[in-house]
Automatic annotation (TrEMBL):
Region: Disordered, residue numbers: 1-33
Species the sequence originates in: Streptomyces formicae
Lineage: Bacteria, Bacillati, Actinomycetota, Actinomycetes, Kitasatosporales
InterPro entries, per the entry: P-loop_NTPase
Name of the featured protein: Uncharacterized protein
Length: 190
């Protein structure tokens, strides 16, 4: 979740899922903060759109998960922060290498500089999966890390987002209990 802009400027979120939430609610004011503008993409050139809107909004959030590689690439060319959520499963961790390869190519075109963070999501502390996954992200096996030799650790955030029922049931809605996300934003903006 985005941190409210310090300057009081509205925030813009470009995402199909959030746009759907606001449309289904029938009255956006009761489900989203007044300073949050939700807009559906795709745009032909999302990077150009972000450049044009950067001064108007305190934060622009692009949800490119599971979407177009082109949109991801274009968004990273203008991003200040890349936040990559990953569930504690082997398949999710394997996808990270390709995600970071693409992010590195896009970051080479970024005039602002971009900082990347991986955040563990859908974590269930009743199992060993989150701890094991964190260990493998911080000490990757051969060719499963980042960097030129694919042996460097991923930039893993300390904050973990758990697999809580209120998150799982929030599809199509804006969750009301966001303390873990608030902790994550404090960590990333410290």
């Amino acid at each position: 979740m985005p941190k409210p802009a310090a300057n009081g400027s509205p925030q813009r979120e470009l995402t199909p899922s959030t746009h759907g939430r606001s449309r289904r609610s029938g009255h956006r004011a009761s489900t989203a903060p007044a300073n949050l503008v939700v807009e559906r993409y795709p745009f032909d050139d999302i990077a150009e759109y972000i450049r044009a809107k950067r001064a108007e909004f305190g934060a622009i959030v692009v949800d490119a998960g599971g979407g177009s590689a082109r949109i991801f690439h274009e968004a990273v060319t203008e991003a200040n922060l890349l936040l990559v959520p990953v569930a504690p499963t082997k398949i999710e961790r394997r996808k990270l290498v390709a995600t970071f390869d693409e992010a590195e190519r896009a970051a080479a075109r970024n005039p602002h500089g971009v900082t990347a963070h991986v955040v563990m999501v859908k974590a269930d502390d009743r199992t060993s999966l989150p701890g094991r996954a964190k260990g493998q992200l911080l000490e990757p096996a051969e060719c499963e890390g980042i960097g030129p030799d694919r042996d460097e650790p991923f930039p893993l955030a300390e904050t973990t987002i758990h697999s809580w029922v209120h998150y799982m049931e929030a599809f199509g809605e804006i969750p009301t209990e966001l303390s873990e996300y608030a902790n994550l934003m404090k960590e990333l903006t410290a």
